[in-house]
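Hi Y.,

Following your request, here is the sequence exactly as I used it, all 391 residues.
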Amino acid sequence: MKQPHIAVVGAGALGSWTAYYLKQRGAKVTLLDAWGPGNSRSSSGGETRVIRSVYGPDEIYVKMVAKAFPLWKEFEQKWEVRCYTRTGCLWMINKADDSYLKTSLPHLKKFGFPIEKLNWEELSKRFPQINSQGVLSAYLEKEAGFLRANKACRLVCEAFVKSGGDYRLLAAHPGRVEQEEMAALQLSDGTKLQADHYVFACGPWLKKIFPELLDHHLTISRQEVYYFGISAGNASLSYPALPCWVEFGEHIYYGIPGAGNRGFKIADDTRKATFDPDKDDRLPTFKDVETARSYLAFRFPKLAKAPLLEARVCQYTNCADGNYLIDRHPQAENVWIAGAGGGHAFKMGPALGTYLADLILENKKIDPFFSFRRMEGIQEMQSQLFKQKKA
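Below is the corresponding structure, written out as C-alpha cells. Let me know if you'd prefer a different format.
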C-alpha cells in the first residue's frame, strides 16, 4: 500500500523526531523550518536540557521518559553520537508541601527509575559545596542528566536527511481549510507544497499560525537562562562532583553544573511575562540576573562573586493545565497540531515522535490527556470561576 506524503512544519524536538520516525516507517516526509533546527529563536535551541523522570502525579510523563531513554540511547548508538550525559538530579524542597515529588515516587518505582531520599546530614556531607540551610527534604534521582539541545536537533535532522527525508529551510503557512481538509501549504519561496497530512510542530508560533483556534488556549512566557563562571580548577561545581539540580520553594530554580563547558547554568522555571518570539528582544533583565546571583550566593557560596558569562532568553509555550497539545485540527482531518511543550518536551522528543507517527500512520486513538477537548473543558471551568468571583 502506498505510504502517504506528510509535511512537518517545525524542525525542533517535536517536529524533527516526528519526521525522523515517520521516515523510518516508510512514509514520504518533507520537513520545513524557517530558521533551521536548534536555531536561537526556537524552544529547542540552547546548549542543554535536563532529562529527568520526576513528574508529580502524572504517570503518563514518567512512562514517556521511560520510553524516551532507550530511544535516545538507540539513536546515539546507531549514528555514533553523544547527546545524553548521566549526572543524576538532586531535588531540594524548601517548602512544607513536597507532594509533587512524593506523588511521583510510585511511578518511578513502577518504571524502574531509582531515587534516594537524603536527610539533612546526608545532603550536607555528600554535597558540601551546597549550603543546605532551609532544605526540608532532598532526593537524588539516579538516571537523570542532561541532553545537548541544539546539537541533538541538528543531528536528528541530519539523520532524517540521510535516511531519505526531504528537509527545506523555508517558512510555511497553512492552506485554506474547506470540507474538513487543508489545502497545500504556502511556502516562503513562492511555491506550494501539497501533502496527504500536515503536522504543525511550531512551538510558540502555533498561536500565530492558528490564532482563532489557539489564542485563548496557549500562553507564551519569557524565560531567562544564565551561565555563571566557575573559578579555575574548581571541580566541585561541575559534574561529576555535582549533579543537575532542582529546588522547589518560592521560585523553582534548576541548574546544570559545568554544562557543555559553558559555566554553571541556572534558570528560574517560574512562568514570567508574555513573549513574542518574533518581535521581542532577547536581552537579560538586570533585576532577574541579580535575583539569580543572590540565590547562587546563598545556595552555592563558592559562586557568590561569580561573573555572568552568558545569558539566553527563550520561551515556554503552555496550555492552562501545563500539558501538551497533540491532536487533530478540529476543522481539518488531515492536520495535526503538536505543541505546548512548556520547557519539558525536548527530553521526551523521541517518545513523542513515535507517538505522533502511530497517530498518523496507524490512526491510533488520541490520548484525552493531550486533546483539544480537555482544553475546552478547562476554559469553561475558568469562565465559571471568573463569573463566581465577579458575583
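The chain has eleven helices and 22 strands.

Thanks again,
Q.
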